[in-house]
Amino acid sequence: xxxxxxxxxxxxxxxxxxxxxxxxxxxxxxxxxxxxxxxxxxxxxxxxxxxxxxxxxxxxxxxxxxxxxxxxxxxxxxxxxxxxxxxxxxxxxxxxxxx
Amino acid sequence: xxxxxxxxxxxxxxxxxxxxxxxxxxxxxxxxxxxxxxxxxxxxxxxxxxxxxxxxxxxxxxxxxxxxxxxxxxxxxxxxxxxxxxxxxxxxxxxxxxxxxxxxxxxxxxxxxxxxxxxxxxxxxxxxxxxxxxxxxxxxxxxxxxxxxxxxxxxxxxxxxx
Lengths: 99, 162
Prior knowledge:
The structure holds 2 protein chains of 2 kinds. Chain A is mainly α. Chain A has 3 helices and no strands. Chain A has helices spanning 4-13, 21-34, 43-85. The longest helix of chain B is centred in the C-terminal third of the chain and has 24 residues, at 138-161. In chain B, helix 7 (111-122) crosses helix 9 (138-161). By secondary structure, chain B is mostly helical. Chain B contains 9 helices and no strands.
């Protein structure tokens, strides 16, 4: 009865033997060296991409901070205007120092 | 990864890739090496598409299998054994004599079963990794392996009786 282990052993025993690995690799390396470096493998390009990414993130963060400050300023201004325009009867007596 | 690092990586991975393709091509060294060369150059040119979700060797074998499919024709792979249709078995001189028993044993399998069985038993890949390489669910890989195992057991039993 042939078991799973026997199949594995059979494959390991009859593994194809590779010849000419050296010349094969030499030829592939020669062809690779003759080709232009892909963008994904260019360290300078990778550095530029990283810098661009950092700048983009910081710009996005800055935009968010600006927006938050703008909203806060708008709320403060509107609140101040509302309070100053309200008739004095609506305000508690000691909200301002003067009467 | 730089070009030099890529070369270092492929120098260790070229052997399993070539061995797998040699099995797929039934020992036709020239055809297997042609496909392997094509695979390594494609991997180099399209390195940007490697997202690191699987290991580099899995990604390389995936390209290798796709190059093999392009070479022999997708339609043949999905049907019967490629050796029957395309007569890929090379002449005795080109074949490794020690491995001829292996080529004979996997001869009756479909290309997908052959790929699954070679990767599983010869290269020690898991069914999950094989599913990534062949681009199919793990369940399908397991069923291909099951069918291939059945076939191989029959062949090995028959050989044992002789």
